[in-house]
Design a protein that fits this description.
The protein is an alpha/beta fold. It contains 13 helices and 8 strands. Helix 8 packs parallel to helix 10.
């Protein structure tokens, strides 16, 4: 059954290890991360920490994973189909079998380097949500659409196709959206807070038009280059609910600095 789809927005920090870390390295990395989490994070209901190791390291990281916190375990990709003659694909049930709670889909690496289409990503989104998995759906605008000032339409087109056949009952707490400013990521440049906030606001508006309060209530994460000194300004916009990190997630100290910057103040 779908879970509650109320408007409450949680904060998220997700570390994507990309094509890095062997199984033992990933296990050591996650162990160090969990042991370094401050009590206010471990006890916080409003903050979720996620990690996305390679497929091969998912089961290695399983002992630390809890879908309700402190650690949500995500794959870096997934098939939307459970089983079939699809060589090389990994379905939702297979992910659950090794302890994963969900997956990233639509990451800009997959869209750009592997030419994944909006239609393929839509199939993954629908299949994972219907299978009861967490999903971090990535959308973003490449340099050419930003330069032509067609970036908003580009991102909304990605969303429109992704959610075309998704029942509103599945637009719930298991779903987060990640805005990746590909035009900035391609050059390893940070995004200005007002640029991120503007696109997050546009995404939230569309989600509200499509799904009402359930859509407006989804957490939207910033997937661009970010450091601890930028956290306050990005969160201060009121539109950014967290971060998908890549390079900082490979440095436990840097990852923890960002987590601490997002942690709720202790009474």
């Amino acid at each position: 059954m779908p879970d509650s789809n109320g408007p409450r927005r949680k904060r998220w920090v997700i570390g994507n290890f990309s094509q890095h870390l062997l199984r033992t390295q990933a296990e050591e990395h996650v162990t160090e991360l969990i042991r370094g989490l401050p009590p206010e994070v471990l006890d916080a209901d409003e903050l979720r920490i996620g990690v996305a190791p390679s497929f091969l390291a998912l089961e290695t990281c399983r002992p630390w994973a809890r879908p309700a916190g402190p650690l949500v375990l995500l794959a870096q990709n997934a098939s939307g189909v459970e089983t079939g003659p699809f060589t090389g694909e990994i379905g939702p049930g297979m992910l659950a079998d090794v302890g994963a709670h969900g997956a990233l889909i639509g990451h800009w690496h997959r869209r750009v380097h592997f030419r994944e289409s909006n239609t393929q990503i839509a199939s993954k989104l629908q299949g994972l949500l219907e299978a009861g998995m967490h999903v971090a759906l990535c959308v973003g605008d490449p340099p050419e659409t930003r330069e032509s000032r067609n970036h908003e339409n580009h991102v909304i087109s990605q969303l429109s196709t992704a959610f075309l056949n998704v029942d509103s009952a599945f637009v719930c707490g298991r779903l987060v959206i990640v805005y990746q400013p590909v035009w900035a990521l391609a050059h390893d440049r940070p995004t200005r807070p007002e640029q991120a906030a503007h696109m997050h606001r546009r995404i939230r508006s569309w989600m509200g038009e499509r799904f009402g309060d359930a859509g407006r209530g989804r957490s939207i994460l910033h997937g661009g280059t970010v450091g601890p000194d930028q956290i306050g300004a990005l969160l201060g916009s009121g539109e950014v609910d967290g971060f998908l990190l890549e390079a900082p997630s490979l440095d436990v100290s840097a990852f923890l600095d960002i987590v601490r910057a997002m942690a709720p103040a202790r009474p």
